[in-house]
Structures are given as structure tokens and as C-alpha cells.
Amino acid sequence: MTTRAFRAAGWLAAVLVTAGAVPSGRAQPIPTNLVPGNFTFQFANTSGTPITTLNVPVGTNTATVRLYLIQTGGTPPNVLQQLGAETLGVRLNYSGGIAQVTNPAAITGPLDSFGSPEFDFVQRGGTSAATTTAQLNDPTLTTTTAFISETIIGNPVVVADASDPLRLLMGTFRFSGITGGTMVVQAVDPFTNTNNLTGPNPPTLPPSGTNGEINIDPLLAQNVSSALIPTLTITVPPVPEPGTFALCGLAAAGLAVVRCRRKAASAATAA
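The structure assignment produced for this chain is given below.
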């Protein structure tokens, strides 16, 4: 059986369990009571633990952050587990002077247990903060912004795991340090059109985008009267000046000379 067949079978089984058996054999709609603020984006480390700060380690000069879509209210409380998602997207905005996502290759989408992409169609790039014609015509520009957009075409919808029913992994972003300092990264809805949809309601296979899917975009916390936009503070350690390296080298050499002289003096005294 192919990877997609396994996934399709698993998703269909989940639908049957979630919806319950009914005489007609058709899944029933899941009643929902959702309002703006019931969903938001969430930063996390590579282990999945939520974070609000990220330190770029000295030496590697890179650090990776995960982005999740998470439900924080409304009923049912586990929409992402019951309906899943067929379209997701998020954009990171940042100044870029301290650190940045260097290119689209530093953005990756989630993989299933077989190591295959969970979404059929994935777009990665930047350009939202472009200011010149050249930048506007370069979709790979990620100097001050980076996004991932992913859509189901033939695969089953992506469903939140029972062990983590309130959120879905959207992707990972690898930041590279530019210079020492601190900057703030914001996670926002990447486009003005619909880009975050649940799976069909009632659950059906395959998803089509016109079978009762819930548009999550208006339900994001950034759309409440006092917008709540998730932020991450990234800190990059100062990079020593070339002169500093030279002074350190001289100091080390001087210390070695002193140690050699002390050893020679000790040997002479012992003789």
C-alpha cells in the first residue's frame, strides 16, 4: 500500500470514529461555536515547547523555530483534531537587521510519519515588505519577511494528533544571525484572501474547499478589537571585531611564553 493510501485509510478511520456510526452511513456536521480570538499562531522550539524568546547560539549562528496554528477557545475545543485542515499559511515579519530567514530553503513544511510532506502543494518565500521594483519581482526575497502556504489537493486533510489535539504544525523557519542585538518577530495571517481552512464539515473525502470548511482567518486573535499578534524576541550574540580576535591571539601567545619561562625556571631550580 502506498504512503498516501495509508494516510487516506487512517484519515477515513479517524473520520468514522469522530463522526460516529449513523444508520445512513453519512457523517454528521460537527456543531461549532467559534468567534474571533479562538485561534492564533504559536512559536515553539524544535521540541514543540512554546517559546517567546530565542537565542541564536554562538558558533552555529543559526536557530530554528516552529510555527503552530493553535485553538485557544470556542467549541468544540478540538476543531483541528475533529476536522483537521486542508489549507494553512503563516507569515513572519521582522526587521532583518539582526537576524533573518536567509532564503526559502530555510523554510520547511511538516512531514508525516513516512517522511512525506503532509500537504500536496507548498509555497515558501517572502517579498511582502519589498520596497523596490526588483524586490517586488523577486518572490524568494526573505530579508524582512518569510511565509509558508500549504494546501491539500489529493491527500487527506491534516489532522491534529490525539496527544496534541489543539494545534497543528505549520512549518519551521531557520534564522541566521546577521549582527549582535535583539529583534522582534511577528506571526500574522500571510495574505488578505482565505488561507487557513479546516477540513470539510461534515468530514468527507477528498476535501474540496466547498464542503462546509470553516474559514479560520477571521477567527485569529489578530482580528479582535485589541489585536493580539504572537511575537518572538530573537537575540544574536555580539560578533567580535577582527581586532579583538588579533588581541586574543596575542594574549594567548603571551600566556604560552610565560608558562614556558616558568617551566624553565622551575627546572633550573630543581637542578
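Interim note for the steering committee: Residues 1-6, 8-25, 244-251 have pLDDT under 50 and may be disordered. Residues 242-270 form the longest helix (29 residues).
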